[in-house]
Design brief:
Layout (H helix, E strand, L loop, with lengths): L2 H9 L6 H13 L5 H11 L19 H5 L5 H12 L5 E3 L4 H14 L6 E10 L5 E8 L3 H19 L8 H15 L1 E2 L10 H6 L1 E2 L1 H14 L4 E8 L4 E9 L2 E5 L28 E3 L1 H5 L2 E3 L15 H4 L3 E2 L4 H13 L5 E5 L2 H27 L6 E6 L4 E6 L3
Parallel strand pairs: 4-5, 11-12
Antiparallel strand pairs: 1-3, 2-3, 6-7, 6-10, 7-8, 8-9, 12-14, 13-14
Helix pairs in contact: 5-6, 8-10, 13-14
């Protein structure tokens, strides 16, 4: 039984008290309906029978869903009812939940666990009813009707299939995560005004999005490749709302922030700012709690596992991460970049004390020595370079100019 439809039908027979009922219904939308008078009118409008959302969700698809696994056993039926109702585009979903605020929380868990639900705007109205049996009616906000939803799903599917066709055969978790990270960073432009920027359509079809789109697309692709990935919300240290991902890479948890793969340079030298374009930042390509806690503050709506490893951080894997300062090794890394005619040279330190102790020597001595080697190696009369000095990330990046 669809409660909302029944309500509309019966109201035509109750037109004589329409004004009174509208006022009462307005009250029902914002608080639990519990008094005898309200319960009586609700029964006249909706009938005495409570028809819960039928569930056809298979248990196997819920096994890897992080937020589903965090909720209590007794709440899982309501979660499944919400998921099924949203999938079926139901306007009013009746669920086994006694509190409206908790029903809203379960709805948000569903949205975090299923990035493919792009047709729902992420909002809902919850009205809880008590009496002989307590339940809640959820009314999600939908962006598109069924026909438009189907058309957009096909577009997303085609774009995602094209992306996944390029994954190297035999790739392990790290290689899959890196592939998705670079694919999305190179595909998408960050745009606060992009349409559908809270869902994956903005990424796969429009190629313009914000953090929600980046993170949900990352989750969607990695889940399709069999890599655990979930959606994490929170704020930046400046207090702005933000979203990123938690992944399981070869047995350990790491954080990934695809959005911040586009580098923000705090300080540069020289006029050729175009030289930085195309350089992906890998600070949040598999990092631990220590690395991310300086810039990201997760919400407390669900417990998150400890991320204690840096083994699969991009800079560690590629020998660009320093747990001690060896000036000869750092200079050699600069010279390796120069001899290869490559860019950039990245020097990332494990903590701020190490970064601070090495900072002055790098800028006053090592970069100058490497610049002299650059001039000698390429026969240049004038040497130019640009640098990015990022104390928050304990990182120095240098781009060399070879002409």
């Amino acid at each position: 039984m669809n409660k909302k439809k029944k309500r509309g039908c019966l109201m035509r027979f109750l037109s004589g008290i329409l004004t009174v009922l509208c006022l009462i219904l307005a009250v029902l939308c914002i608080r639990t309906a519990g008094s005898e008078g309200i319960s009586w009118i609700r029964e006249q409008l909706f009938g005495s029978e409570i028809v819960y959302q039928e569930v056809r969700v298979g248990q196997e698809e819920l096994e890897g869903k992080y937020y589903y696994q965090q909720i209590a056993e007794e709440e899982r039926q309501a979660y499944q009812e919400i998921l099924q109702g949203v999938r079926d585009h139901i306007d009013a979903i009746c669920i086994h939940a006694s509190k409206a605020d908790r029903a809203n929380a379960l709805f948000q868990y569903v949205m975090k666990d299923f990035p493919e639900i792009f047709w729902c705007d992420g909002t809902t109205t919850a009205t809880a009813y008590d009496g002989n049996e307590m339940y809640t009616i959820l009314e999600p906000g939908y962006l598109y009707d069924e026909q438009k939803k189907s058309e957009m799903e096909q577009e997303i599917q085609m774009a995602a299939d094209q992306c996944l066709s390029g994954v190297p055969e035999g790739a392990d978790d790290y290689q899959k995560i890196l592939y998705v990270y670079e694919y999305i960073v190179n595909l998408v432009d960050y745009d606060m005004n992009a349409s559908d920027n809270q869902n994956i359509y903005s990424v796969f079809v429009n190629h313009r999005s914000v953090c929600a789109g980046y993170s949900k697309a990352t989750q969607y692709l990695l889940e399709r490749m069999g890599v655990f990935c979930t959606y994490v919300t929170g704020t930046t240290k400046e207090g702005q709302t933000h979203a990123w991902n938690l992944v399981l890479c070869n047995g350990d948890y790491y954080y990934v922030d695809t959005t911040w793969g586009d580098p923000v340079f705090q300080e540069s030298e020289g006029e050729d700012t175009a030289a930085w374009q195309g350089n992906v930042s890998y600070d949040y390509m598999c990092c631990d709690d220590t690395q991310i806690s300086g810039t990201h503050i997760p919400d407390t709506d669900a417990a998150l596992p400890a991320c204690t490893k840096m083994d699969y951080n991009y800079y560690v894997v590629n020998g660009l991460y320093y747990t001690e300062y060896n000036r000869d090794a750092v200079l050699e890394k600069m010279n390796e970049t120069i001899r290869a005619g490559a860019n950039p040279t990245v020097i990332k330190f494990a903590d701020h004390d190490l970064y601070a102790s090495a900072h002055d020597d790098i800028f006053q001595n090592l970069i100058k020595s490497a610049a002299q080697n650059l001039a000698s190696y390429y026969g240049l009369s004038e040497v130019r370079y640009q640098y990015m000095d990022d104390p928050d990330l304990n990182k120095i990046m240098i781009i060399w100019q070879y002409q």
